[in-house]
Amino acid sequence: MLALAISSGAGADYSSFLSSQTIEKTSPNINESAKVHAPEVNSTMPVPWWSTLVDAYRPIEASSLPPDVIYGAEFKTFTIDPAVFLPYLLQKVQVLGGRVFRSSLRTDRGLEAATAQAAKIVGLDGDETVWAVVNATGLGATRMVGDKHMYPIRGQTVLVKGTAKACTTKLGATKTDVIAVMPRPRTNCTVVGVTIEEDVWETAVEEDKVPYLLNRSKQLAPELLDKHGNHEILKVGVGLRPGRKGGARVELEDGHNGLLIAHTYGNAGAGYQNSIGCARKVLRLLDRHEKTTSL
Fold it and tell me: What is the pLDDT of residue 17?
């Protein structure tokens, strides 16, 4: 019997990543320095809950902070370069015997119809049956399974030439007021972003946001600027994060004709961070279900 995964594309908790060999093989900067800054309006900001999970977390001396920041910290972490990470994962799937099919599925007829269509695309022969389907459709779950808790979180980024010295994030007065610099050493470029726009479906580039992001990032990574104080823009990107009210959905559901559905979607902007952790939970749930039903 087979397990069929239906996914909308790319999308481990921190400890899961560190405990696997994935990062060692795909990230050249696993011990990269990272910084987080909080402005004066957040003067009562407590020490982040994740400070005990990362390596070498320590506050930055006030004299070393920008003038509009009253709290900062640095720690060691890793960054994910999708151009390296995703091909690595695909290779792992294929080495383990997985088959990958890229096609279009209708989402307006429900998961049962989509699963039947996927089975035809895969071309299952008479001796093969599907006993479980992994639904990792992201925002597609809105129509696929009628999840009304899903909503888009638009994000625009700018890819610039050069590698920033550290992954730096500056937090503002609200959760949407964020500026981040994320280096990609293997390809000598850096991602500058991000916008956080909830319930916005527009995927076209908004040109006015490009200078907004770049100007705010200059203080965080001046090493990316040329002699004229400008960035060399390589690409401007827009994406829709799969937000979900109440958090990500990772659970099993009984489908039609005895088919088991494993839902894993709704990670908002934490898709890469949560990916391995979500995958491991899905496997635990399926394994537990199989052992229970075989008794």
Answer: 61
